[in-house]
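Late entry, flavin-adenine dinucleotide complex.
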Amino acid sequence: MLDLYNCILYPSYMEKEIVDFLIIGSGIAGLRAAIELAPHGNILVVTKDRPAESSTGYAQGGIAVALSDEDEVGIHFEDTLKAGDGLCREDAVKILVEEGPKRILQLISWGAEFDREGTKLDFTMEAAHSRKRILHAHGDSTGKELERVLLNKVRTFQSVKKYPFALAKDLIIKGGECHGAYILKGRELIALFAKATILATGGAGQIFSRTTNPVVATGDGMAIAYRAGAVLEDMEFIQFHPTALFAPSAPQFLLSEAMRGEGAVLRNINKELFMKNYHSDAELGPRDVVSRAIISEMVRTKSNYVYLDLTHLDGEFIKNRFPRIYSTCLQYDVNIIKDLIPVSPAAHYIMGGVKTDTDGVTNIKGLYAAGEVACTGVHGANRLASNSLLEGLVFGARAGRAALNSPISNKRLELSSMELTTHSLSHNTHSLPIPVCEEIRHALRKLMWERVGIIRCEVSLSEAREKLERWSFILDKNFVARRELELKNILTVGKLITEAAGLRKGSVGAHYRSDFTQRGEGWERHITFKKEDK
Ligand code: FAD
Ligand code: SIN
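Prediction complete; structure with ligand written out below:
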């Protein structure tokens, strides 16, 4: 029986495979980890779609790094801490800004072509950076360039194999240790044994009905890790990007912050500028402030959007600087150099995730995490723009190196009949009728957007909690099709975000409560979850 994507069939038996290192996800963090490990064993990168299908591949604005003549790592450090609103882990930030320049120069040596002015690298400005610090490629296709270079580099190693369209369902846990993962690949369910498993599954934007994230971003890694007993941290901190395209027949396409960095302004539907009323840095204020300001203007003017305006800027410059955005918007009949662009905020990035130390080590032996799925604490309560690609590079490499010291052996384990029953037997799997699965997914994402979105309060969170509970029957099901497994993961992570948002009775960073607008007592604590706690 085919699932929605016609690519995963219900499995009836289980294959077993053994590798040294298993990496789940082929974005910047997973590929960088694979390159680090490549000389040291055989590596398998499993990824649930095409290898380049990831948030990384869609990244526009660029990658932050203190490499320009006017910049210093110390200033990048301070800007990151300020954006994180008091909740960054300083040791992680120090590593990010100090190791960042070396990792970027290494990428350039592997062929990364960042835009230049003459022979010098061209750095641009984004919100909350106190220096021009953002490297970009082909104008607004930075992520595509990074995926190209990393995939090319990975191809030079015979030791690295890739399984595209292979979905990690759950981790293989024995005696509290991670020995690999159950992978759905085509018709097969594979028990993949490895001495180290690195989760690099990216974010969870698809939990919300308005998001800039690609369809693969369903929080799988966080849900899989949580089911296995990993600690998750800071789940209430979701970053909402202020400017996603708002057009009836268009996707929620991101309009990079770099556009505001180049002088684009925001206007309400009466064409009035408004950002100066909300923040002294106006359009370049922190993302959460700009997103909330947009929502206030939308409510005040009874509109579903505001406008991003570039019409006062040099049209030729804009076309060259943002060629991908220009051509994509034209496909939806919006000419960004002539028209006001309708925009509204959308879920963009999750600061929380699987708790790790600065080497990607989790509380489960043999399990590592890096990139957006992980929570090193580097972003605190709010991420500084363009710091996440750098995070993937720096902490992907570190997790790869740490995995070399995994205490786990990769011998093939005998799986108990209980494990076989839970994970593989066809007669014991569940499925939902396709319309039911899609109805729940739609309702859940809408609920999360409307009740656990940019502005939260006890009333909205209680309503969300109650409705999410009604779908809890899904959590016990042994699904073996992609859409159903994603639904289970979306629900798992959605519940944790809602719970954390309810527990934090105060507003910090990207987490805003209309009923507790101050930071509140004990705001410095980090909220964590572990399955047996619940
Ligand atoms: P990803 O790049 O998302 O990769 C995750 C991988 O895991 C994918 O290959 C996915 O298919 C795979 N996967 C997921 N679940 C499973 C599963 N169950 N089994 C197997 N594989 C799985 N950040 C910046 O710093 N600068 C920017 O300019 C910028 N622009 C952005 C623009 C957009 C539109 C978006 C969405 C994000 C942007 N970000 C930007 C954020 C940044 O792109 C991401 O945070 C970063 O790329 C995450 O990298 P990652 O390697 O952790 O995950
Ligand atoms: C953007 O280009 O606006 C996205 C940058 C980021 O998410 O860091």
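Confidence is low (pLDDT under 50) at residues 1-11. Will revisit in the morning.
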